[in-house]
Amino acid sequence: MAKIVAIVTSDQDRVGGGAPIFVEPDKEKRESTAFLLEKILDAIAHDMKDGNFILVDHRTE
Fold it and tell me: How much is the average pLDDT of 18-38?
């Protein structure tokens, strides 16, 4: 089962939940943070095309 492990957003008011949320108003910084977290968390960054990235662990255990 896939699990959201982090969210990178431009606006904290648009997201919520139990995953850590990283707020980056600048588009380039948001992308950079998402791709860095992708490596650190061994997850996959998905660009939601609305100013948000979700980082998902797709491993099944």
Answer: 97
- What are the strands, taking DSSP E only, across the chain? 3-9, 21-23, 44-47, 52-57
Burial of 14 (0-12, 13-18, 19+ CB in 10 A): exposed
In eight-state DSSP terms, residue 10 is S
Structure tokens at 40: 């650190």
Could you tell me the pTM of the whole model? 0.92
Q: How far apart are CA 11 and CA 3, in angstroms?
A: 22
pLDDT, position 23? 97
- C-alpha 12/C-alpha 56 separation (Å) is 18
